[in-house]
Amino acid sequence: MFEFKLSDKVRSLKPSSTIAVTGRALELQRAGVDVVSMAAGEPDFDTPEHVKEAAYAAIRAGKTRYTPVQGIPELRETICAKFERENGLTYSPEQVTVSTGGKQALFNAFFALLDPGDEVIIPAPYWVSYPEMVAFAGGVPVAVDTQPENGYDLDPAAVARAITPRTRAIVLNSPANPTGAVYGEATLRAVAELAVKHGLLIITDEMYEHIIYDAEHLSIARFAPEHTLTINGASKAYAMTGWRIGYAAGPQALIRAMNAIQGQSTSNANSVAQWAAVAAIQDSSAFIASAREQFRRRRDRIVSGLNDLGLPTPLPQGAFYVMADTSRIHASELEAARIILDDARVAVVPGTDFRAPGRVRLSYATSFENIEKALGRMGALLSVSAR
Ligand SMILES: Cc1ncc(COP(=O)(O)O)c(C=O)c1O
């Protein structure tokens, strides 16, 4: 048999543990086991009706061809208006690029920026794809740890200590996956100052900006516009994960470089999905408000429930995840996640790949009924193991 060699690059790439757990839970479900999945990384709501209508209209109007690499002008103008209205940021359409999900925008950015050995600072616990993408692009991810005791807030002094002559960029993600942390103005201003002082780029992933509870979302681009690439997308805000629309806005030279990469890889984001995104971004405030209230109710229930079970869980300010301390179940979070899946039939994601030892991530982007069911099952598991 012909044995071909895969590249060193791809062999060092770690598969997403979130996808791995979701896959294992689906496998069990297919085998007839009733698993409650708390592993999802996407809203459980349907895409709003007016967004679907815009897509049907686009198909009927024949908007089914290649689009400009950086996205249709109508969508880039809509994105500029959104930045102005919601974030107090002024961008021209030339400073905006549309990609196949925020994931591709991030991927293009790291490839546009990094040479071998260039360092990127990433607050931890982090979304698993950041360090993987940085390493895939030849860079070196440098973690700066944050702590559950203060809601995983970022200490700018710790960021400053991590800066070396090889540092090129700092990644921020507020509201954060997996911690739900939301950075306040003082933190953002301090990080912006560091970026300006050391000539660094800030890559800020604001995908969860609308899923926020007791805090206000602030864009760091307000404090260092020339040093910031803002990433956002349609997936989380408008329940459009499958449509694959993400976007980035920032310095024009960087946007051009990202367009060059995209032009030689995927060309453009899906044309119909771009028209749907125009409708979503222009007018979804009622949907956003309703989703937020449902998420808030679920968050309050799951946090109090997990704490009652003796699994200490801080109250997150944003996104739709909680980080539960599972040391009562097993010292290793990998083992704890396995036990919770096999014995309580609840799928959770071990914190290992998020750099969150001793904790697992539970997503509450699922029905209230499922949350009750998961808490009930985990409660039964704990009283069994406590005996
Ligand atoms: C923090 C964060 N950024 C980006 C993404 C990617 O979103 P998209 O569907 O736009 O690629 C996700 C999805 O899970 C995420 O959690």
What binds here, in terms of ligands, is: pyridoxal-5'-phosphate
Query: Count the strands?
Result: 12
Q: Name the shape in a single word.
A: globular
Given as residue ranges, the uncertain stretches (5+ residues, pLDDT < 50) are none
Q: What is the CATH topology classification name of the largest domain? A: Aspartate Aminotransferase, domain 2
Summed up, the domain count is 2
- Give the full name of the CATH homologous superfamily of the largest domain: Type I PLP-dependent aspartate aminotransferase-like (Major domain)
Write the element-wise H/E pattern from the N-terminal end onward: HHEHHEHEHEHEHEEEHHHEHEEEH
Annotation field: number of helices: 13
* Terminal CA distance: 54 Å
Classify the helix fraction into a percent range. Answer: 40-55%
Second CATH tier, the architecture of the largest domain: 3-Layer(aba) Sandwich
Can you put this structure into words, describing what you see?
The chain has 2 domains: 8-46 and 286-386, Aspartate Aminotransferase, domain 1; 63-283, Aspartate Aminotransferase, domain 2 (3-Layer(aba) Sandwich), CATH 3.40.640. The protein has helices at residues 8-11, 17-30, 49-60, 73-87, 101-113, 129-136, 156-162, 185-198, 252-263, 271-282, 285-308, 333-344, 368-386; strands spanning 36-37, 96-99, 119-124, 140-145, 167-173, 201-205, 228-233, 246-249, 321-325, 346-347, 349-350, 359-363. The N and C termini lie far apart (54 Å). The protein has 387 residues and is an alpha/beta fold. It is globular. The strands form 3 sheets. It has a 7-stranded mixed sheet with strand order 2-8-7-6-5-3-4, with helices on both faces. The protein has a 3-stranded antiparallel sheet with strand order 9-12-11. The protein has a two-stranded parallel ribbon with strand order 1-10. The protein binds pyridoxal-5'-phosphate (PLP). Pyridoxal-5'-phosphate (PLP) binds at residues 41, 101-103, 127, 173, 177, 205, 207, 233, 235, 241, 246.
